[in-house]
């Protein structure tokens, strides 16, 4: 007997209604609540009677599908399922049953599959009661959805009316993404082959979620990056990627890409962080971007956390990992992208946070955005929210299609999913070669329920079986047909949305860094206290020197110790500089920032704090030591020490850009400072230093030399000391045997100029490192770190 369909639509607004529905064999119940749940289930009962009560504060639509089938077929399938469920450990004896369907509409979450007599909806006021005269309990198994039911998945049914006061999400014009015969090779990425992805076919449509699933090293992230056009230069891509039927790369602003691990700014609130991100990405006026930020907050359900600090402060904890992950996605949504790529959205999330994340993404997809993301494993609830799945193993595509059809595909290949097992767990168990080692370890061990796994076949054989079954299946043919439809006609091309100007970005980064530094006490406030304590200690140790000729040697020592030890204290800024570099790398990967913009903003924002440190420390040291009481000399001392600190900031940034590791950065900086101190001319006059290495070039590279020279020239050039009652000597003559300085009165300004040039020079080196990505290829961390965590494609 053929399948017939019928639709009944019931609407309620305020009053409570009760409706009874009868069916001769099978009934399908579809319920919808605007803000809560969406359920669709088939129950196999002979002549059941359903009583549905709708709460008074919901506006609901119920669509009831009646599917009539032969009673003999239903009962035979039920009996067969009951007999096969007792032998779940034997995959050959398991066949899929057609007595249970579980479907859902994009944007809605569902309850877990229940095997009780009466399904419950805990999140709504809908009460469902099943009354029947007799019969066995409901038996369930998974089967693919019929073509008529796929209309629900595709969202072709009309949307229900929204309740009063509901917030309408802004619609997004999505874009179709289709890839055909996509092969990606990366030299040295695989042990036996350079092919990371092999002849992959698939597509993603607007308003849907397409997930790329597979075990570790299966090529998930590589395929995702290939679709987004973000592969490294060493990769070679073969095949075609079409966007709206056009074979072209997506322009800036038309798509968003969220890395597996992103860096957020903990000292900003969620709203501030997204607002500054919008200012960096979007052109136009400042006030026009507030609505974009609010839309992003609404889309990712961050309204309750909008005014909370991301990282917390003092005794307050920061936001949980799930909210942080949603913030990183919201940062890309301020551009309102047509396509959103996410690498492992459930990375390091617990089951509750993972479900909330996927429900939020489902709601985002319902606005029209095309979502493509990778995932390693998911729960049953999360798996039910996916629209399409691309299953990879070692670069091979084992399946592409709707999620329910994937269950049927595994059943057809001889690997049906057990009753109480998550589909994703079952898929990974069948295609993950790591399980072979576990089975080999436990081959002689069995628990009380039978074997360790229902999949007893060798994983390599299972992979080949699944791949061969898919290539000859109707699912693969349907993908080919859909690819032809998506690529035969060109749709509207995506256009760039424009960028913020360089001057605007510099201003935004400067202001944002100023705000961060003012809130983060570890950036400069702690260093200010340390510099003040150091100046106080040195000043009190060398206080009361007087201005006699005998005090010259001691005063030279005091100046050298002040400059050298203050320079060593600058190493305390390594963690802050590393955090700045990570933020830059995260923003630069999505073209939210640039190298020159980052360096200018970082320099301009640090100047006020560095100047505050220099003037406060200089005042304490200057008057405790008893240097000459002239305002012009004091200002030169402050400027000289300020330039010295700027050089230190540039040196720390330069080393941190190379190492990108706290331990190695501190270790290298300490050695650099020690070498510079030895060649600065205090322990041995520069003219007496060995000319190879120490004289040339180390003493000329050491900024200590120019700083100490300038300060001593500022203090002693133009002074004289009495020797006995008749003879006097100049300050230059008094210092000649203690420290090597120039007799020229303008020499101190030359030393100050050299310090400023060195400060600029270190930042130029940083610009070169970041611009040409030397941090990724010549990183000392990769050369010296013993236990390196390599990045493998997922």
Task: Write a structural description.
It contains 26 helices and 20 strands. The protein has a six-stranded mixed sheet with strand order 12-13-14-10-15-16, sandwiched between helices. Strands 1-6-3-4 form a four-stranded antiparallel sheet, with no helix packed on it. A three-stranded antiparallel sheet has the order 2-5-7, with no helix packed on it. The protein starts with 8 loop residues before the first strand and ends in a 10-residue tail after the last helix. With 794 residues, the chain is α/β, with parallel strands linked by helices. A hairpin with a 4-residue loop joins strand 3 (26-33) and strand 4. One of its GO terms (cellular component) is membrane. It is a multi-pass membrane protein. It holds the Pfam family ABC2_membrane.
For this entry, give a set of tags.
794 residues, 20 strands, disordered C terminus
